[in-house]
Write a structure and sequence with these properties.
With 116 residues, the protein is α+β, with helices and mostly antiparallel strands.
């Protein structure tokens, strides 16, 4: 795996050396996002490889559903919803989903903290 920073589009920079998590479907990295409202902020970036999507049609459908779901939630503001910023596809067909970065915790712990 290459280590360093990679730009995706005009607003996203991924720190390839800071992987936050992974599963067979994707890798999640820490990065920065240039938000028109919030300025440059730390984010979690879910990277889904085009190769994995071509190999598994179910994963491609799951990705399409996730993007649709996140876009529906995008206008909502709640401490119980991790903010979704953007979906970008590069020239290779790789997908990048940009989410609010939950510092020092994972999503499950973050949700529990908000409920207390």
């Amino acid at each position: 795996m290459k280590v360093g920073k990679v730009r995706v589009g005009d607003k996203i920079e991924i720190d390839m050396g800071t992987r936050l998590g992974s599963n067979p479907y994707c890798n999640i990295y820490k990065g920065t996002y240039e938000s028109e409202i919030d300025g440059t902020i730390h984010v979690a970036i879910k990277h889904i490889s085009a190769c994995k999507l071509r190999a598994d049609k179910w994963q491609a459908k799951a990705l399409a559903n996730e993007i649709k779901h996140q876009r529906n939630l995008q206008p909502l503001r709640s401490p119980h919803i991790v903010k979704f910023y953007e979906h970008v596809t590069n020239a290779n067909g790789d997908h990048y989903l940009v989410y609010e970065f939950c510092d020092n915790t994972d999503l499950a712990n973050y949700t529990e903290m908000c409920e207390e």
